[in-house]
Design brief:
The protein has about 170 residues and is α/β, with parallel strands linked by helices. Helices cover about 40% and strands about 25% of the residues.
Length: about 170
């Protein structure tokens, strides 16, 4: 029998491996059927976003990596909207009141979705932040990233969906 500490390390490695395997297995597969309603009342489904590239960002107000990448995600929304890219920032498991207070101090330009207004957080097992998912124009998962991605990572993900990042 392995000592407790080694069991914990082994369990952690297996958990991380299974998360990575889950993400890799999803790429190229059809995106799960979803519905999402933004804080402004817009609604989106698989059918309504067909023909667009969708960048999903799962985030929380307390996540320092989410805060750091917020301007980058908002820039993608601003720059690529005219090229058929839709950004949905899904806040996970926080009250609407708390998120609205956060947004008053830290405005976002992309569309915000609350957990209770979508089934996306459950579908993508959003339990560590940020998580990024890119759905291509045909409705397939083009890329998934768990953890901070940075500009280079987001460029790669969008490229996999056929979006060229111009300087």
């Amino acid at each position: 029998m392995l000592p407790r500490r080694q069991l914990i390390v082994l369990a952690s490695i297996l958990a991380l491996t299974s998360i990575s395997a889950f993400a890799a297995d999803e790429e190229g597969q059809p995106a799960p059927r979803f519905h999402a309603k933004t804080i402004t009342g817009e609604t989106f489904t698989n059918d309504s976003v067909k023909g667009k590239v969708v960048l999903l960002q799962f985030w929380t107000t307390w996540c320092p990596y989410c805060r750091r990448e917020q301007p980058l995600v908002d820039t993608i929304d601003h720059v690529f909207a005219s090229k058929g890219v839709l950004v949905l920032a899904v806040n996970v498991a926080e009250s609407k009141k708390k998120v609205k207070q956060y947004l008053e101090q830290n405005p976002r330009s992309c569309r915000i979705v609350f957990t209770e207004d979508t089934n996306l957080a459950a579908m993508y097992q959003a339990n560590a932040y940020p998580i990024y998912v890119v759905i291509d124009r045909e409705g397939n998962i083009a890329a998934e990233q768990r953890g901070a991605s940075g500009e280079r990572g987001l460029r790669r993900m969008l490229w996999k969906a056929g979006v060229e990042w111009e300087e």
